[in-house]
Design goal:
11 helices
Length: 182
Amino acid sequence: MNPQNHIERVIEAIEELKHQNRYGEARLTALEALTKYTDDYRLYEELADIYLFEENVEKAEEVISYARTLHPSSGTGIYLEWYISVIKWDFDKAIEILSGANVLMPNNAEILRNLGWSYVMKWQVSRGISFLRRAHTLSPDEMSIVNDLGIALMSIGKDDEAHELFKETGNTLALEALKKIQ
């Protein structure tokens, strides 16, 4: 059997176990696969993701660090490392990680959204909004971008602009929330 095909099937099985909230079994499956395929970064990424679901941030950080050593430009690895930084409220590191990712994958709306939100969380709201606006331009229908941009705008008193953004994108949930707080 082709090892690449086997790894793909193992990863699919791990993903299915995670989808079923069977994280212990998913972790054991990943660990067993790593005894055979010690240099496959994707298995380490899966394991880090499982540790995050299990709320073991330290183990997730250790594992994703190794995965990033094996494949520094993996989008999943970059995302997981960023996510761990956010969990730890280390927005300086989050910005550093996503700034590097933005160079590797320019004009990626999700990277720009997360970079923008990281700046917002550091109270560099204007800079964050500029990244969020770029993300929104690239993906105008993505509600996570719309929500982040709207919240960032409201945080600096631009409620009318946020309301217009929510109205233009059909974000009725956000419009209802705005009605309740006004």
